[in-house]
Specification:
Strand 4 and strand 5 form a beta hairpin. The protein is globular, with a radius of gyration of 13 Å. The mean pLDDT is 96. The N and C termini lie far apart (40 Å). Strands 2, 4, 5, 6, 9, 10 and 11 form a 7-stranded mixed beta sheet that branches. A 4-stranded antiparallel beta sheet has the order 1-3-8-7, with no helix packed on it. It contains no helices and 11 strands. It is mainly beta.
């Protein structure tokens, strides 16, 4: 059974930092692109960052320069380091995995809440 489990969310003040983790189980994800998405109340889910199977990273304009995505293949875990947090970053954050031949993300975690107070 494939599972993605996020952790590390919480309440932080503006300007603070958090590191989210996404632990994958059920298969090896080294050949998958790992992505982070978020959904704020009343808004559509949006892309945040991705770390491809070919070791390329990409970020949304909203988080570029503040967030860093990384992954540890040995631990089958992806991370999202979030610095200089703003109230607009408040959302449920989801990690997801996309296979090399997939057109969409195949697996999703349950999400972790990040709240940034002003």
């Amino acid at each position: 059974q494939v599972q993605l489990v996020e952790s590390g969310g919480g309440l932080v003040q503006t300007g603070g930092s958090l590191r989210l983790s996404c632990a994958a189980s059920g298969r090896t994800f080294s050949s998958y692109t790992m992505g982070w998405f978020r959904q704020a109340p009343g808004k559509e889910r949006e892309f945040v960052a991705a770390f491809t199977w070919s070791n390329r990273t990409s970020y949304s304009n909203a988080v570029k320069g503040r967030f860093t995505i990384s992954r540890d293949h040995a631990k089958n875990t992806a991370y999202l380091q979030m610095n200089s947090l703003k109230p607009d970053d408040t959302a449920v954050y989801y990690c997801a995995a996309q296979g090399v031949t997939s057109e969409h993300y195949d697996y999703w975690g349950q999400g972790t809440q990040v709240t940034v107070s002003s």
